[in-house]
Structures are given as structure tokens and as C-alpha cells.
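Private note to self, pasted from the team thread so I don't lose it. C-alpha cells:
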């Protein structure tokens, strides 16, 4: 799922291409992508784009007439920009919608068979507020506001960082990267956080998110982003299961649950302890290695008797 850094860069490019331009028409290729009916999507036709901003992981176009076009990419939604509107065809299999501006066409696509990406047209600030999850904008907040949001509820750090009600724009990928930078376990409970750990986590959040916005901005340059992915070769641990941690060389481990997973370094984040994967640890029971040292011993070739 595109998170704060990717969505921020999308927004920056869309601002340059669409603000003070006219949204001439919205073409819906897949009816399931449009999740609102009042006002009808046709009400957006001919409206001037006054601003583009990020709302959590959503992209919002502020249109004249107090209307807001809200695009949520979810897991596999992506955007393509075509300067030549006449040549901007909506792909047959993955295309969901096309937004025709007088400066070019924005095409919304979604890979895979599940259709989770969405388009809403909201009327007024009250309509837009329905899409606000209430999470703290980490890069705009001070340490005290961060502490208050983090400690508001007792969750694991992984869950807290990825909860849009607590923090805006952070998901599965960057929660992994932030926790690795902070040297904290994804399963540590927020209620048991020491003061210096909270400060360390806040600093890691600001550093990681800022660095990745800068990195993705530099990679795209003046071109509209084409390779937006949750898995980037420069990430430290996310999507790097079994690969060496860039800080200590220990193989990155993971915990798989539901449709997500946590990636972490056992030496840098958990004091050498392997966190229990529900499926594997239940299967192996007493044979489940408790530490990275035990795991490495199991992987060593056995000498012949």
C-alpha cells in the first residue's frame, strides 16, 4: 500500500500538473471503484482544481464549488499520468478510472483480482471529514503530541504505528523501517515504553519518513512516479526476510499474520530473541528456536557420525 512518502510524492506531481487546471471529465471503467452517489461524479466535470493534498493515505483534489475528489489507492492501486489525453487509454484488465484534465489525463489502475481502491466525490468540509481517520501527522507534530498519540491506547508498536486513528500515513512497510531504525521490537507494548524509548521512536519516525520522501522525490525527478511499490531495494528490513540486516548482518526475520507481516532484525531489535510466528511456532512447538543463535545452530551443517 502506498504510504506517506509515496503519496506525498504523488501529490507533489499532481499539484504541478493539475492545480488551476480544469477537470473536464471522469471516466469510470469499473463501477466498483466509485463508492459515492451523492453528489454524482458528473458534478465534478468542468470544475477547477484549487488544491491537491494528502489525507492520510488518500489523495484529495479540492475542486471549485466546494467539492472534493478523494482517491484511496489501498494495497494495489496506482496512478499513471499522460500528458496527451487523446492517447490516454484506460487499461482493460487493471484500469479503474480516468480523470481528464485540460493538462493531461490521470489513470487509476489496480493490480490483482481484488478491487479495493476507491473514488469518492464529497460535498463540503463535512463530506470530506468522513474520510479523515484522525491520526497524527508525525512530520507536523512535536514530541509531546507524538507521545500523547502513542500512549493513548495500549497496543504493540507495530499496530500502533500502522493505526490510522493514531498516526496518519504510516502502514506495514514504514512501520517496519521505523522500528528497525529505533531498535525496538514490533511486539513491544506501548504501555511499557520508557520515556527515552518514546523519544527514540519519535526521532526515528521523523528521520525515516523525511529520508524516504527525499529519496522518492529524487528518484522521480520531473517525471511522474512510475514504480511505486511497498518493497524498495533500499529498505532495511521490510520485504527482506532472510537477507542480511544492513546494520549487523543478521538475517532479517518475520512474523506473518493475516494478510500482513512484520519484518525485523533479532539482534538490533529484540536482543537476539526470535519472535514467535503463530503458525510455525505452533507447528514446531518445543523445536521452535528461541533465539537467533539457536536458529543459526540449526542451519549449520551437521558433521557425519
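Design output:
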Amino acid at each position: 500500500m502506498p504510504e506517506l512518502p509515496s503519496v506525498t510524492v504523488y501529490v507533489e506531481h499532481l499539484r504541478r500538473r493539475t492545480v488551476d487546471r480544469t477537470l473536464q471529465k471522469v471516466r469510470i471503467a469499473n463501477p466498483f471503484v466509485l463508492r459515492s452517489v451523492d453528489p454524482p461524479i458528473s458534478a465534478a466535470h468542468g470544475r477547477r482544481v484549487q488544491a491537491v493534498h494528502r489525507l492520510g493515505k488518500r489523495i484529495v483534489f479540492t475542486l471549485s464549488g466546494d467539492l472534493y475528489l478523494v482517491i484511496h489507492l489501498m494495497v494495489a492501486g496506482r496512478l499513471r499520468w499522460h500528458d496527451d489525453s487523446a492517447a490516454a487509454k484506460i487499461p482493460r484488465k487493471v484500469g479503474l478510472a480516468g480523470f481528464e484534465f485540460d493538462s493531461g489525463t490521470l489513470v487509476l489502475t489496480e493490480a490483482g483480482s481484488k478491487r479495493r481502491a476507491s473514488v469518492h466525490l464529497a460535498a463540503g468540509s463535512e463530506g470530506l471529514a468522513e474520510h479523515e481517520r484522525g491520526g497524527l501527522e508525525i512530520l507536523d507534530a512535536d514530541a509531546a503530541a507524538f507521545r500523547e498519540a502513542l500512549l493513548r491506547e495500549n497496543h504493540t508498536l507495530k499496530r500502533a504505528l500502522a493505526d490510522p486513528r493514531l498516526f496518519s500515513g504510516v502502514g506495514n512497510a514504514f512501520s517496519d523501517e521505523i522500528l528497525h531504525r529505533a531498535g525496538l521490537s514490533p511486539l513491544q507494548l506501548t504501555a511499557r515504553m520508557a520515556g527515552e524509548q518514546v523519544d527514540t521512536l519519535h526521532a526515528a519516525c521523523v528521520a525515516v519518513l523525511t529520508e524516504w520522501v527525499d529519496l522518492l522525490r529524487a528518484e522521480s525527478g520531473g517525471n511522474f512516479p512510475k514504480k511505486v511499490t511497498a518493497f524498495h531495494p533500499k529498505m532495511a528490513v521490510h520485504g527482506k526476510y532472510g537477507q542480511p540486516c544492513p546494520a549487523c548482518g543478521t538475517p532479517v526475520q518475520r512474523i506473518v499474520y493475516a494478510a500482513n507481516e512484520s519484518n525485523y532484525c533479532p539482534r538490533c531489535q529484540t536482543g537476539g530473541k526470535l519472535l514467535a510466528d503463530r503458525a510455525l511456532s505452533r507447528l514446531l512447538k518445543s523445536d521452535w528456536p528461541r533465539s537467533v543463535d539457536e536458529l543459526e545452530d540449526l542451519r549449520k551443517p551437521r558433521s557425519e557420525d
